[in-house]
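seq:
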Amino acid sequence: MRRGFGLIAMLCFCCFLGLCLLTSAFYYHQLTGVNSYHTVSKKTSKSSSYRMKNDYSGVGNVSVSNQEYHDLESKLIAAAKLYVKNNSITGNHKVIVSLQTLQNQKIIERIYDSNGYSCNGYVIYDLLQNHYTPYLRCGSYRSADYINRLE
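struct:
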């Protein structure tokens, strides 16, 4: 009389469990965006289209070029530079300056794209390399490697 699993059944179960663990680890990494702002290259990408809460509902579909978003990112960098200068931030680490912080200190006004979408974002300032990396989210535009929890 056989009792319990055989060797083949146990190996199949272990392989299935390992596959489930790898899949969940992969999706967890994508969901949390761990270490995603340490990349060197920066590209732009489109995300799914959505409206933010305070946007105008009657705005028509106007085509917006990526150049406009790059100009808005440049505006965000200029405000972050002023923030760093005013607050005398020193050290050898990275500092995240959110658009909300810049607005609270009256350095920059709310940012809208030409479609009327309200923008949100942040700048990561690397004090060691003196380098500013902007991240912006407006309507369906989203900077590559944008992490919502850093807003």
